[in-house]
Amino acid sequence: MKSFRYQFWLAVPLFFLFSLMPHAYAEPDSRMVVEIQADEEGRVPSVQEAIQQALPLLWDRLVDSKARESLSDNMKATPFLQRVLPRGDGVQVSFNEARVWQYLDQQKIPYLKEAPRINLMIQMSNQNGADMPQTVELLRANAESVAEARGVLLSESGPVLIVAWQWIDNSQVNLVVRGTTALAEFSEARKIGTGDPLSQLQSWMEEVLLTARDANISNPDQTVAMPSLKKKRDGGIEVLLTIEQSATLPAQVALEDALRQHEKVESIIPSYLSAVSRQYRLQLKGEEDAWVQEWFQRRGMQVLPTPQGWLVR
Q: What predicted TM-score, i.e. pTM, was given to this entire model?
């Protein structure tokens, strides 16, 4: 009898240990942790203030942009709380993942169960087709800030989202969005109003990023087949090759000559050339161009597909 009791009490803690193991090894969702910092005057919010400020920020990360309007910023946050950790310069508020999902499911509110990964590529050119790298850097920095606040992981391992702007004249900009995210390819032109054009472009960039994020709710596979816009020609195809890499003129010529010597290349026709970017019409023998990716990768370059061909960085 004593032996039975001993085995029983030995088994109880082991049972609870194994029952908790899946939770112990579960990957935490970083979106559930919200950092509330001190305000501009250096005042650190109280714990209660931080809790109420954190919940709207959580909804911004999880919920579809249109459905977000149905969630009041004054909603009580305490039912969703996991932990509150005051810090020297702010308060860290953690929410209970299971309770959050349960509430959104009960209310039938569309949300992102996982943070989508997006490989964001931004292009900007002036009226003459010349690159605008400084503007691209500023748009990229703003996009990174928006992505963090909106629950998007910008990562090279994610589906590609190419956002390409070109100025038509002094007040109009054309945008083309393409790639392999769940967002369908589209283009539009807008007139930039008076005031700071950069802030207007940044707001436009935020719209595109949120639209790409929300597309994962209706299309949870996250990736779509990229439509082929490669031109067919007699005996082969023509693909658009875009190279975004700073290079001297001799280095550009050497790369062109090496590519021109490939047995499957019939001709290389430059579309535009600059110190940081150039584009070519690559006319190939046959209708297979997958080798292009390997050819550039062997030279230490990153290669990504586009509807018209390849983007090399």
A: 0.64
